[in-house]
């Protein structure tokens, strides 16, 4: 019998397996596809690899801004894809090595919870074997939502989700993106950089959903200048072949044709087929958990996208750590007050904590501190003609509630803001921190001194 059975080898599952194995637990990890889950195989890593190639190409096209000549800059999409696949293979291999080093048994099969044995252990079945474990951690992840739009199923290969679009052998000449959230905007950025005609149709009046409104508006302006068409406040009503039919805010019927249509309207928790009903696990949008990642069933925990809450790889990893800590009797609870969000467009977007809109909705008395990224010498040196901004949300007592940025490389800077918010630092306390010079991260300190 195993001490712990983990269902799902994504960022929640494999991190939890590594932590549990290192603590001396006897662990079995079930993953029906490849270790690393959606993030490593169909999401975070392959998209960022492609986006970096697109960014290098974009830099080459505009290298003259930096005094460099790149005659006839071009890209080879087959080589870009080959590099993406090599990167994924290398990192999947790294996860496998971690499992081996932590003495975790990996079973590459679909598994179902069959119930409880007489001794109180849980029974899990694959097509070939039955397993028993004292505890279960469910990390089965999520899948792309495919809405019931008339004609969508009949459109065949014209319709792609984040999974299928990564398998395309060449960039689409024209791409319509249904959904202007993080995933939609990253693919819009990728193919816009590679020369595709991109149209984004979003039901909300802004892109990037709950992210900072001023920054999402700024990113939209930047990409409009790059040639991306945005149709906001629009509802898709049908798919006719490779044409998207939608109504605009005035109720007028419009059409957008493309050779590929990316459906990117959200994700749903993978709870079907796990056998949760055999042990009575409760779920709504996802599996219901408490602050220790415990489900309603003693001995069963859940982490990651399957909880339906914060569908981010780094959240999943932390939730997996919290679950294992609870199993080991450590007084650790999950905190969501400083979960960063990043959009890997060019320029990047990163944010953590409350946005101005969220603070105002809560009726908080806040001040908005803001400066252009051009106040950072390093940003000016490395982003010729580039736009950017850093916004800090501060309450009446001077506590930092939120930090939101647009500009490269804000994805590598947001962690300092995460620490400040998690530790409930004030502006005065953060001012005392020494930032390295010259770095773009200094913009955070520059903004603080506007108060």
List the defining traits of the structure above:
451 residues, alpha/beta, 7-stranded mixed β-sheet, 5-stranded parallel β-sheet, 13 helices, 22 strands, 24% strand
- The average pLDDT score comes to 96
Sequence stretches where pLDDT stays below 50 over 5 or more residues: none
Which bin fits the share of residues in helices? 25-40%
Strands, total number: 22
Beta content = 15-25%
Distance between the termini: 59 Å
Number of helix segments?
A: 13
Shape: globular
Helix- and strand-based class?
A: alpha/beta
Strand count, sense and barrel status of the largest sheet are: 7 strands, mixed
Rg on CA atoms, Å = 23 Å
Describe the protein's architecture and organization.
With 451 residues, the protein is α/β, with parallel strands linked by helices. It has 13 helices and 22 strands. The protein has helices at 11-22, 37-42, 44-61, 77-101, 162-165, 182-193, 213-225, 313-327, 356-361, 377-382, 414-422, 427-431, 442-448; strands at 2-7, 27-30, 105-107, 112-116, 122-125, 130-138, 142-144, 159-160, 174-178, 197-202, 229-232, 235-240, 243-247, 253-257, 260-263, 267-269, 300-302, 341-343, 349-353, 366-372, 389-395, 400-406. Strands 1, 2, 3, 4, 5, 6 and 17 form a seven-stranded mixed beta sheet that branches. β5 (122-125) and β6 form a beta hairpin. It is globular.
């Amino acid at each position: 019998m195993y001490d712990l059975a983990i269902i799902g080898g994504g960022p929640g599952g494999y991190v939890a397996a590594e932590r549990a194995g290192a603590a001396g637990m006897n662990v079995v990890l079930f993953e029906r596809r490849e270790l690393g889950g959606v993030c490593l195989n169909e999401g975070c890593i392959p998209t960022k690899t492609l986006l970096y190639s697109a960014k290098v190409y974009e830099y080459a096209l505009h290298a003259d801004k930096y005094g460099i000549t790149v005659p006839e800059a071009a890209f080879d999409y087959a080589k870009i894809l080959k590099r993406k696949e090599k990167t994924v293979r290398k990192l999947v291999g790294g996860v496998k090595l971690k499992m081996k080093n932590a003495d975790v048994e990996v079973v590459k099969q679909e598994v179902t919870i069959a119930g409880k044995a007489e001794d109180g252990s849980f029974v899990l079945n694959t097509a070939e074997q039955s397993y028993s474990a004292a505890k279960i951690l469910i990390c089965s992840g999520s899948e792309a939502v495919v809405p019931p739009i008339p004609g969508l199923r009949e459109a065949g290969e014209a319709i792609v989700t984040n999974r299928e679009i990564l398998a395309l052998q060449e960039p689409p000449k024209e791409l319509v993106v249904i959904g202007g959230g993080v995933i939609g905007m990253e693919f819009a950025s990728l193919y816009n950089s590679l020369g595709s005609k991109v149209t984004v149709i979003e039901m909300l009046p802004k892109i990037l959903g709950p992210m900072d409104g001023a920054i999402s508006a700024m990113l939209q302006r930047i990409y409009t200048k790059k040639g991306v068409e945005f149709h906001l406040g629009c509802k898709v009503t049908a798919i006719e072949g490779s044409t998207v039919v939608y109504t605009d805010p005035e109720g007028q019927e419009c059409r957008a044709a493309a050779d590929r249509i990316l459906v990117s309207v959200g994700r749903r928790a993978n709870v079907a087929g796990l056998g949760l009903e055999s042990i009575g696990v409760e779920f709504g949008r996802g599996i219901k958990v408490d602050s220790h990642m415990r489900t309603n069933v003693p001995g069963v925990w859940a982490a990651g996208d399957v909880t339906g809450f914060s569908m981010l790889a780094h959240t999943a990893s932390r939730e997996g750590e919290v679950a294992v800590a609870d199993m080991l009797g450590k007084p650790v609870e999950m905190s969501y007050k400083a979960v960063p969000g990043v959009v890997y467009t060019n320029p990047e977007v990163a944010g953590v904590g409350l946005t101005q809109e969220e603070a105002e909705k809560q009726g908080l008395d806040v001040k908005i501190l803001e400066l252009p990224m051009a106040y950072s010498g390093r940003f000016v040196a490395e982003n010729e003609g580039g736009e950017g901004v850093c916004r800090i949300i501060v309450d009446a007592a001077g506590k930092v509630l939120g930090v939101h940025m647009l500009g490269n490389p804000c994805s590598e800077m947001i962690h300092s803001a995460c620490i400040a918010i998690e530790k409930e630092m004030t502006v005065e306390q953060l001012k005392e921190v020494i930032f390295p010079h010259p770095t773009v991260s200094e913009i955070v300190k520059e903004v603080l001194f506007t108060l």
